[in-house]
Amino acid sequence: MIETDILIIGAGPCGLFTVFEAGLVKLRCHLIDALPQPGGQLTEIYPKKPIYDIPGIPDILAGDLVTDLMKQIEPFRPGFTLGERTETIEKLEDGRFKVTTNRGTVHIAPVIAIAGGLGCFEPRKPPIPNITDFEDKGIEYIIKDPELYRNKKIVIAGGGDSALDWTIFLADVASDITLVHRRKGFRGAPDSVEKVMELSENGRIKLVTEAQVIGVNGNKKLETVVIKHKETGEQETATDHFIPLFGLSPKLGPIADWGLNIDKNAIEVNTFDYSTNIEGIYAIGDINTYPGKLKLILCGFHEGTLMVQSAWKMLNPEKKLTLKYTTVQGVNGFEE
Amino acid sequence: MITITVIDREGESHNLTAPTDMSLNLMELCKASELPVQGTCGGMALCSTCHCYIESEHVLREASADEEDMLDQAFFVEDNSRLGCQIKLEDKIDGLVVRLAPEAE
After folding, report:
1. Residue B26: inside a domain, yes or no?
2. Mean pLDDT, rounded, of chain A
3. How remote is the C-alpha of A216 from its chain's centroid?
4. What is the mean pLDDT of residues A7-28?
5. pLDDT higher than threshold 70 for residue B105
6. Distance between CA atoms of A243 and A169, rounded to whole angstroms?
7. What value does the mean pLDDT take over residues A55-75?
8. Which one-letter DSSP state was computed for residue A46?
9. The CATH number, out of the four listed (3.40.50.2300, 3.40.50.150, 3.90.226.10, 3.50.50.60), of the domain defined by the range A2-122+249-329
10. Nearest-CA distance from A58 to chain B in Å?
11. Which among A127, A160, A295 has CB closest to B72?
12. Which residue among A65, A204, A283, A297 has the highest number of C-beta atoms inside a 10 angstrom radius?
């Protein structure tokens, strides 16, 4: 069980900087993120893209901004629960919240700051109506254990790096691999593309381009997939597994069921302190909405800063907080 | 100003007029016109929520590698598929007709 002052859901730039502002008023933070590393979209999607609108920093790569934020908050020793998705929240008798992840990790805090950005990243599922019937019964969106495919017939769909890399890797594991891609060309790393072409020429894999998987069939478990080729039309192919690899897309996820006011996938907040309709729960950064909202990192930093002041007042109703500048006080971190 | 026709997912046509001097893209125009286009990633060609089909004969700039990459991960992709966020609103696309692709996420 993890106890902290402010539990931040989402370790993107906004959640990370909130640790700094909280530390200045002596509040400790713990962050939960579904991704295995901090940084949110910046590290997961565009680490090599330059950002030009961080005040005072003419340009910085997204990945470097995260590295710098981690350095900036280091004195305040934040805790991290990474690679786990926030599932449930419940209010305890003492007024604090108990937040549990999909892996059962329990966190307790009087204040929750949802800094979930676009939501949690989940695999993109092909729009095949009955696809959910065969999830974990022959259809996997993420390869967890390659041994599952030992001596099996598999169909992989997708044209990106992960589709190519797994095709190459599983060529030695599975008995039969078909790779289905919508175009003739692949945009993956040139080495991988070359390797896949070679495997195809040597008859080690079947490459079906200009085609898509449009149907899945079976009884209890997956038995066949329907591949539609641009010219030759539909063909049903027997398979043990179908692995669609179409990248990740963000979903609001279980937070949508927490009783918060939600408008178009975003959490409504009061701009006075970015509080939600539930006392003690705030929402900051890209996940919130209010009149005039802009999804900018710098706005998220501002929102986190004001939110921390409000949280401090809620936790210390008798005391008065005066703003202390870092130029006067410096940064006094926590001992441990 | 240019005019662009956007056919929504119910088949209804919307004639939108837009300025060409504000470096806007088609995704932003759709959002500003309250059409059901999410534009989740903000225009970086990193999601496919602005996926649309070009229905008129206009010849657009070729899709960048980033856009092709994203279309590789999208669904319902056809030969005339594009990401709205990568279509700049400029004079040469005056009269463009696009159809919004089905939602797939």
Report:
1. yes
2. 94
3. 28
4. 97
5. no
6. 14
7. 98
8. -
9. 3.50.50.60
10. 20
11. A160
12. A283
Three-state secondary structure call for residue A35: coil
Q: Architecture of A125-246 per CATH?
A: 3-Layer(bba) Sandwich (3.50)
- Containing structural domain, residue B65: 2-100
CB-based contact B72 A182, cutoff 8 Å: yes
Q: Please list every residue in chain B whose beta carbon sits closer than 8 Å to the beta carbon of residue A265.
A: 38
Smallest CA–CA separation between A318 and chain B, in Å? 42
Average pLDDT, chain B: 92
**CATH number, residue B62:** 3.10.20.30
Residue A335: which residues within 8 A CB-CB, separation 6 or more? none
- The complex's ipTM works out to 0.76
Q: How far apart are CA A283 and CA A274, in angstroms?
A: 6
SS3 label, residue B47: coil
Handedness of CA B10, B12, B13, B19 (dihedral sign): negative
Q: Which of A118, A183, A249 lies nearest to residue B72, judging by beta carbons?
A: A183
Judging contacts by C-beta atoms under 8 Å, the chain B residues touching residue A162 are none
Ramachandran bin of A223, using left for φ above 0, alpha for ψ from -120 to 50, beta for the remaining angles: alpha
Q: How many CB pairs under 8 A join A and B?
A: 46
For residue range B10-44, what is the model confidence (pLDDT) as tens digits?
Answer: 999 999 999 999 999 999 999 999 999 988 888 88
Six-digit token pair at B29?
A: 């125009």
